[in-house]
Structure formats: C-alpha cells, structure tokens
Fold:
Amino acid sequence: MAYKFEQLEVWQLALEYIDLIYTLAEQLPRSEEFNLKSQIIHAATSVALNIAEGSTSQSDAEQARFLGFAVRSLIETVACQHLISRRGYLKEVEQLR
Structure:
C-alpha cells in the first residue's frame, strides 16, 4: 500500500536533495564529522521526514505546520552550505548552488 506522501512531487524532490547533500557531505574533512557533516545530513533528512509526517495530518493547519518545519530544515541546509563555503571545504563551489 502506498502512502500519500510517496506520491507527492515535493517529497520525491526532497529525496533527490538528500542524495545531493550526502554527496556534498562525503567531501567534508573528517574534522567536521560530528559538526557540519552530521548537521547538514540531519537537516536535509528532516525535510523529507516532515513532508511525510505532515501528509498524514488530520487537518490542513497541521499539514501546513509540518511543511513549515520542512522549509525551516531546508533553510538550515542552506546555512550549512554557507559555512562550508566560508571555510573553503569544497574545491568546486558549484556544488553548493
């Protein structure tokens, strides 16, 4: 049985974004293993998880609340990318765009 969220394009895009974030995170130095690397992966994963959780909500307001959490997590990944860029951790800055 398929769940509602599995049919949502935004959830499918979130999965693709998680793949990109994992690829980016794998390039970070070992010194960031428990800082930026874990933080950006956790935030990206939260985007998809909040979309999924919100899709089972009983009301539109509740669903909107979880979508708000997803957006906040997405913004967190963007902030992490700025920190990664400022520290010069990636050779190809294009990966952050």
Observations:
- The two ends are 36 Å apart (CA to CA).
- The chain has a mean pLDDT of 92.
